[in-house]
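User: Here's a structure from my thesis project, written as structure tokens. My advisor, Dr. K., wants to see whether a designed sequence matches the one we expressed. Can you design one independently, without my sequence as a hint?
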């Protein structure tokens, strides 16, 4: 995937503050320490576009980024959702983030998919399973991702991913933001759920055209 341009678009602490969707949107969600921001920067080939921090839980708002692709030629928006499950934030703050995430997932008309991220070493914990269940409940497609592959040996990676896929009963994309291993396959899956490019047409389904997407 060749990125023509990627830029910050908007932030909001409430869904009503967000600009209306102009293109297909794919959100990124996960616990506060899974490397969500690093993964997004890896996908976009930008080092500091999405804010990263050594302190988990630094994302407190919904952040939108406009992504323009050269190959395939298309535009979509990446959505950085607040991380969850970080115990050192106050209970009230964690509750407000949860409501913000739920409101966005349930009511955002441009949302096409959610990249649900876990640390490959920890796997899918109760919070993650609840997120995936909710995403499916509201009719949005989850894309499962296990980050930090570089923390495991090559033989451990394969075995760990097979174990996670068996547990979940569906594909799990392994990715390393450090080495970019798995980047292209994950980007292909993201374009598929966004109904963009030749990857969009699945067996038994009609692909939505880029023009239709841009007119959400």
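Assistant: Designed independently from the structure alone:
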């Amino acid at each position: 995937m060749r990125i023509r341009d990627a830029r910050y678009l908007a932030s909001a602490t409430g869904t009503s503050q967000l600009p209306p969707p102009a293109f297909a949107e794919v959100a990124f969600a996960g616990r506060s320490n899974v490397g969500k921001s690093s993964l997004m920067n890896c996908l976009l080939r930008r080092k500091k576009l999405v804010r990263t921090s050594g302190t988990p839980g630094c994302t407190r708002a919904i952040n939108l980024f406009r992504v323009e692709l050269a190959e395939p030629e298309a535009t979509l928006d990446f959505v950085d959702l607040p991380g969850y499950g970080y115990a050192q934030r106050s209970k009230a703050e964690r509750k407000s983030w949860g409501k913000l995430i739920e409101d966005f997932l349930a009511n955002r008309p441009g949302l096409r998919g959610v990249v649900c991220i876990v640390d490959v070493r920890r796997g899918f914990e109760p919070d993650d399973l609840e997120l995936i269940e909710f995403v499916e409940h509201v009719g949005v497609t989850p894309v499962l991702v296990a980050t930090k592959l570089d923390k495991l040996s090559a033989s451990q990676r394969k075995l760990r991913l097979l174990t996670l896929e068996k547990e979940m009963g569906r594909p799990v994309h392994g990715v390393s933001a450090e080495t970019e291993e798995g980047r292209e396959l994950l980007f292909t899956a993201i374009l598929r759920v966004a109904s963009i490019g030749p990857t969009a047409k699945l067996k038994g389904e009609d692909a939505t055209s880029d023009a239709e997407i841009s007119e959400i």
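When you compare it with your expressed construct, this may help: The longest helix spans residues 91-107.
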